[in-house]
Amino acid sequence: MSQAPASSATVVIYSGGMDSFTVLHRALREGRDVHALSFDYGQRHARELEVARRVCRDLAVPHQVVDIRAIHGLIDNSALTDTERAMPDGDYDADNLADTVVPNRNMMLLSMAIAKAVNIGAGRVDYGAHGGDHVLYPDCRPEFVEAMNAVAGIANFEPVEIHTPYLRHTKADILADGLAMGLDYADTWTCYLGESLACGRCGSCRERLAAFAAHGVSDPLGYAQRPDTATDGESDDV
What we know:
- With 238 residues, the protein is an alpha/beta fold.
- It has 6 helices and 5 strands; from the N terminus they run βαβαβαβαβαα.
């Protein structure tokens, strides 16, 4: 007996950052019926949720923001969720950026995204784990994704695929894909601080700026300080 075709519906875990922004558009280009899902877990950079709302509204993509701030006390041992802790500066490094790990974040978010997928009959959950995160974030590593995919295949009556198109790619690779699609990365937020301008100092900002520099393209986002201009007297305004 032939199997029924998989649902074209996809739940995209959409933070508002450039990785998930690219994943979202990639799914749309595939002709998927995209349902964007964002989470408010008390992150300091909650500004990313404002960006996510605006993008989904402009694209007419169904979007749900789930308020899970009630679990904040379970995951507050991180610079991303504790405003009393200093945000590490500098390039991504296992020593100085371990403070930005939010305990068990992706397992929790994926579990809820899988539940939504089952609820609406979607056959897939997309999220933007990529190769640059492997050293720092255990829940972005291929081993984690493979294990979660195995669980997602048996946890419900209908299996759900966890799709990570950039799992073995760099931030620069993701940007290359997005630029080829003509995406405007002014519609994203990457900085770990939720201020009016991106800080340009945290590892997330620096990795983003390095990706743009690798392609010889100027990042359209506004920065309080750009590492590439901080010493040459140029304006930081975009």
